[in-house]
Design brief:
2 copies of one chain form a homodimer. By secondary structure, chain A is an alpha/beta fold. Helices cover 43% and strands 16% of the residues of chain A. Chain A is built from 14 helices and 14 strands. In chain A, the strands form 4 sheets. In chain A, strands 4-14-13-12-11-10 form a 6-stranded parallel β-sheet. Chain A has a 3-stranded antiparallel β-sheet with strand order 1-2-3. In chain A, helix 1 packs parallel to helix 13, helix 7 (156-183) packs parallel to helix 8 (200-212) and helix 12 crosses helix 13 (332-358). The N and C termini of chain A lie far apart (42 Å). The interface between A and B is large, with 39 and 39 residues.
């Protein structure tokens, strides 16, 4: 494990825990929600905006950064955090999820994934060692083992195949990472990813295999891909039993506030999701009273802020009527304002979660939050 | 003239002057550059961004605001400054320039202009009194008399016709404005617009006619429509002779830094232009060393800020390489960063101009600025 990387559980409430991760570029508190900065920027946000929201770590997509501007340029510029002028902790994904999302452009074998660039159709090949090299060059503080994510639902045979490849790639990737770090220590931490779709026995197998490789942290991949909330909870609860208590546990691609609260209750420490930012750009924000489709005509005359209980700079200043008007005029400013609020909302949720765990009142907090939140949720999602 | 509106020249340097305008929503210093907030937002900027750049007044387009969200909604929300949560001075244009820009959708007669909405093709009619009513409802601090702008070059007959109509509409508009203010005083100030294309005698006639109507301020319209820089200067120098010294003088739709410096030297107090914001969104920013087409491949590896001499928050943090990468990925963040810098650059230019006039060293400042600026100007524009 990297000398520069550590995780410390500071307090627990039942099996929910609150802690702190230390990286080369500083610390971040857990449970953490990591805004997705696909190509090196969280869409419609500046680094100042992210700081204003209280984000402490952001995620970059290896697939996108590899294609543009290329990992070599980012390396030359001192790594992702510095290239983006963010200068705080960053994480990159393995590229596996992107390749899974664009199946028409990619082909998977035991050796790896061949894919075509969505920019220019050029052919590329990602395999375990390559993905480690690319991510080490991009230079985030936390990087992810190459994995194969499957659709939901998927046959058991295919899911088992993907879990087998994921383990094989994890082994190869881990070995090449250890060799590379021995030669040239960067302080980067490598996390493993557990697959297995919605099959408990495959999750067990994958978890045992991945955990055996002694990563600096472990992730549950392959959820939030279409399964029900009950299945997501069942798989999370089942898989987390195998994940060491003394290492960060990351639930990838999750999610809605209710999913985050669920997963935190089982001891998950890290989350990432495009929901707050992507939905903001299509006219929906998250609020303490549930999702709000602010583009709707019913808000054209509404003097209230996006969220009456929010103290972010957008809610302290702008009305729904104004933001809705700008959104309907396709003004970039509308996307900027809505993205800021929703990002702040998620960071604020995590702050409240951490405080609730510290105060041993997480269960109560979750209940109160959802009671208010779910009044409107079903109507708007 | 409105009791709430006043203009004071604080210092002069030759015929350049530096002053202050007081409005219902506060003061702004002159010479002032007014960022264009078409539909109630300066594209890709928040009100906080505008404050950060030091903007003291923004412009809204009557044509756009009339169509969406409609002047009645803005009135109900307490007027433009409040609806936009800007809460500082605002100005609206007359709509004349927009209608002139979309000739395929509009038809001009002595009575006014019939036009079709670019949103839904619905038919509308703008005439002198209507434009006053719409602008009073929008409720900016300064509103503009309805005018007819002509293309460049234009026949003398057509230009004379447009100047005649502009005077006729100015008279009718002023009368209806005075009546309306008598009934229900708002504190709004109405400015007249001088037309006459590039014909000196028409400019003389139009200036004398418009000035005779005793507006709270006067504008030169119909420039920056394709004439040469020499013609723009000749018309500005000629027309300004007729414009009262004790009232604000506004050169509409101008312009490039060199045009602003030229016009200030003749005693112009106010400017507006989409250049800094529109060009930022197409990959070009203004810098102290001239325009910079930051989207170009030559900046892909450039660690320098957009402008090495700029102290804005974008130049203090981000590299050209990063912003260029984001721009090429069509990231909204690139537009946000570039727009911020260019808006700051124009506001900073105005601050320097005001200081130079105050210090009786405007001529020197202009020379020094242009020497540095024009090194790259010809290459990039």
């Amino acid at each position: 494990m990297s000398d520069h990387f550590s995780f410390k559980v500071l307090s627990s409430d039942d099996i929910a825990r609150q802690g702190i991760v230390t990286t080369l570029h500083g610390q971040f508190q857990t449970p953490a929600f990591m805004p997705v900065g696909t190509s090196g920027a969280v869409k419609a946000m500046t680094a100042e905006d992210l700081e204003g929201c209280g984000a402490e770590i952001i995620l970059g997509n290896t697939y996108h950064l590899y294609l543009r501007p290329g990992e070599k340029l980012i390396k030359e510029k001192g790594g992702l955090a510095r290239f983006c002028a963010w200068n705080k902790p960053t994480i990159t994904d393995s590229g596996g999820f992107q390749l899974f999302s664009m199946q028409d452009l990619s082909r998977i074998s035991d050796e790896g994934v061949t894919f075509k660039s969505h920019h220019d159709g050029s052919a590329h090949f990602f395999y375990a060692e390559k993905v480690i090299q690319v991510q080490r060059d991009i230079g985030a503080d936390i990087i992810m083992s190459f994995d194969q994510c499957v659709s939901f639902p998927e046959s058991k045979e295919e899911a088992a195949n993907a879990a087998r490849r994921t383990y094989d790639w994890a082994k190869k990737g881990k070995e090449s990472f250890d060799r590379a770090e021995k030669e040239n220590q960067t302080g980067i931490a490598l996390f493993g990813i557990i697959q297995g779709s919605a099959f408990k026995d495959l999750r067990t197998l994958s978890a045992e295999q991945i955990i055996s490789l002694d990563f600096s942290g472990n992730a549950i991949g392959g959820l939030a891909v279409g399964e029900s909330k009950e299945e997501m909870e069942e798989m999370t609860a089942h898989t987390i039993q195998f994940m060491p208590h003394n290492l960060p546990r990351y639930l990838m691609g999750v999610g809605y506030p209710e999913d985050i609260l669920m997963a935190v209750s089982y001891g998950i420490d890290m989350f990432d999701c495009v929901l707050p930012t992507r939905n903001a750009r299509t006219g929906m924000v998250f609020t303490s009273e549930g999702p709000l489709v602010f583009r709707n005509a019913e808000y054209s005359d509404d003097d209230r802020p996006l969220d009456s209980n929010c103290d972010c700079r957008v809610c302290r200043r702008y009305s729904r009527a104004y933001i809705r008007h700008l959104y309907n005029q396709r003004e970039i400013t509308a996307l900027v304002l809505a993205t800021y609020h929703s990002t702040y909302f998620f960071q604020s949720l995590m702050r409240q979660i951490r405080k609730a765990i510290e105060g041993k009142r997480f269960r109560r907090f979750r209940k109160d939050f959802l009671e208010r939140y779910e009044k409107n949720r079903d109507a708007a999602t």
